[in-house]
Amino acid sequence: MAQQRETIANMDAAKMDSKVDPVWHRIVLEAERAVHEEPLLGGLIHSSVLYHGTLERALAYRISMKLGSPEMQEQLLREICDEAYSSDPEIAIAARADITAVHDRDPACHRFIQPLLFFKGFQAIQAHRVAHWLWQKGRRDLAYFIQMRVSEKFAIDIHPAAKIGKGIMIDHGHGIVIGETAVVGDNVSILHSVTLGGTGKEDEDRHPKIGDGVLIGAGAKVLGNIKVGCNSRIASGSVVLSEVPPCKTVAGVPARIVGEAGCDQPSITMDQILKSGA
């Protein structure tokens, strides 16, 4: 009975807090509708969304449930996530931008609740944000553990030292590799099987620097400590070995400039077609 009262109180808190958080407000409304439309998912949706008072608490729960294992129980991971969100509000601000980005750019995403519950690209990025926080705090073995579990669970391998901006969409999140010294700017869209990697055994700054608004097509490999300029496009299957100027489209193996980006914000329009003369 006491547990039931606590659950009701938490659900009331979720509704109250959603009034001042538009992203969370929308997720809560969508969750309530989803339970009504598909009662068989009621347990999942209540435990993942409606039981929690904030998006931060829901994210901590979802990450812990996805990454928990006999080596580290869900409760411990949840406490780590809660600590990270409490210590650095920017982590959850970035998560809200990521949810909005996925909804706006992925035609398969029709509701804000989908990335939180179902999209492993979004979930992997949120787990990485916690791992990066741990890395910055000097808790590197724990950061490596989260990296390992994300790789095992989602087939997405992001070094905890990598710096990832906000408003990130990983579409069809599978086979993504992002190296230790890589930097990814804001509002970047990355499709499946993309590698931001090094070119050898060098131990210094050795990974790409991706500018804001870049669109990286499926299977593209960007290798070495090179800069990809803001609002550029990398065509699917390309191997980029040299700097890409802003607002250009590159394609090929090795990649070369084949034209302009074609629009102001390719990562948002998601236009991957190489038009004649573009």
TrEMBL record:
Catalysis: reaction(s): L-serine + acetyl-CoA = O-acetyl-L-serine + CoA
GO terms under cellular component: cytoplasm
GO biological processes: cysteine biosynthetic process from serine
PROSITE patterns: HEXAPEP_TRANSFERASES
Chain ranges of the Serine acetyltransferase N-terminal domain: 23-127
Group of enzyme by EC: transferase
Leader peptide range in chain numbering: none
InterPro entries with a match to the protein in the record: Hexapep (IPR001451), Hexapep_transf_CS (IPR018357), LbH_SAT (IPR045304), Ser_AcTrfase_N (IPR010493), Ser_AcTrfase_N_sf (IPR042122), Ser_O-AcTrfase (IPR005881), Serine_acetyltransferase (IPR053376), Trimer_LpxA-like_sf (IPR011004)
EC number: 2.3.1.30
SUPFAM superfamilies the UniProt entry points to: Trimeric LpxA-like enzymes
Pathway: Amino-acid biosynthesis; L-cysteine biosynthesis; L-cysteine from L-serine: step 1/2
Keywords in alphabetical order: Acyltransferase, Amino-acid biosynthesis, Repeat, Transferase
A Pfam family the protein falls into: SATase_N
Molecular function via GO: serine O-acetyltransferase activity
Similarity comment text for this entry: Belongs to the transferase hexapeptide repeat family.
PANTHER family in the record: SERINE ACETYLTRANSFERASE (PTHR42811)
Protein known as: Serine acetyltransferase
Organism: Rhodalgimonas zhirmunskyi
The encoding gene: cysE
